[in-house]
Amino acid sequence: MGKEAIKMELEKRALPEVLRLADGTAVNTPELWGKRREEIREILQEECYGRMPRTGWETEWETVQEDKNAFGGKAVLRTVEVRIHTNSRYTSYPFQLVLPKNVQKPPVFLYLTFLPLSSDELMEEITDSGYAVARVSYQDIAPDQGDGYTNGPGALFPGNAFDGWGKLAVWAWSASRIMDYLVDLEEIDGKRIAVAGHSRLGKAALLCGAMDDRFSMVISNDSGAGGISLFRGKEGENVADLCRNFPYWFCGNLKKYAGGETKLPFDQHFLAALVVPRKLYAASAVDDQWADPRSEFLSCAAVTPVYELLGEKGLVCDSLPEKGDAFHEGSVGYHLRPGTHYLGREDWKLFMEYRRRHGV
Ligand code: GCU
């Protein structure tokens, strides 16, 4: 009965098929999925987020500060400067790494935050639970405003008015430069790194983890429009709102679909599908109508056939979610927290519970 309700809700959305190649071929083997996956990467960069550089830079990382006895001696707190060069240009930004001392090679949260690195923001609670945290304050990478490729990594690789990368792609790509540092770091478990963020940074985290296969898990909290929410049939924020208020988050081509979501050659389950077969976690809040919890949930349901094709359970649940539900059984985790748009301790607790359960 409950499963039927999910199916009906999805049918109403009339989504573009994630498991069909552009030439019409049904995608029913892992090999064909590999091909479809490349098409989807293309579509999302071309029509929504813009192109992320694949070559043409070099990176160095320098420890600029280290406290070996942070949090009363429980953790090492290190600030690292990421320095990125191209032939003619240069940019840099810091991130902070908190390493708990009571765990050998801890799993990591690479966390994009709104707050400055001087804030404490739950760090102690997370590291006490046995996780390392690599935290970057997003506007240290590039300001949250339309600046026409004059700042940060955007200035290293200026784009055009059509498929040039938007700020979400800039933040996402820059988080991957932190991943470059983490992935081979002896002190952590490079096979268990999750990227996480809230709201606009939930969009950026999802994009980052979708485009960068090295993350074992991708966490998008209340990410809404342009994040995990389906655009078709969505309540609250839509494409026109995004293009009016935050055009610089996306590439110029997205404007073609303002007021015309049904014409989008993708929907957000395509972005989620790039995470397959890795773990995906979406969190919603009941009173977050601007993001639209129902559309966030349905995206998780819509990506499930892709997981199943690859032999994984996607989202495992028997009914539409109710306040307080958490679905943790499958490779897609989801919870619907009571309350408003926010990333708080209940959310982190559930992310950690899910990670422990699945060993990611
Ligand atoms: C605005 C925006 C959302 C975004 C949110 C946030 O509300 O419309 O798309 O997620 O800001 O980042 O807090």
Automatic annotation (TrEMBL):
<keyword id="KW-0378">Hydrolase</keyword>
<keyword id="KW-0732">Signal</keyword>
<dbReference type="InterPro" id="IPR054579">
    <property type="entry name" value="GCE-like_dom"/>
</dbReference>
<protein>
    <recommendedName>
        <fullName>4-O-methyl-glucuronoyl methylesterase-like domain-containing protein</fullName>
    </recommendedName>
</protein>
<keyword id="KW-0719">Serine esterase</keyword>
<dbReference type="InterPro" id="IPR029058">
    <property type="entry name" value="AB_hydrolase_fold"/>
</dbReference>
<feature type="domain" description="4-O-methyl-glucuronoyl methylesterase-like">
    <location>
        <begin position="83"/>
        <end position="311"/>
    </location>
</feature>
<dbReference type="Pfam" id="PF22244">
    <property type="entry name" value="GCE_fung"/>
</dbReference>
<dbReference type="GO" id="GO:0052689">
    <property type="term" value="F:carboxylic ester hydrolase activity"/>
</dbReference>
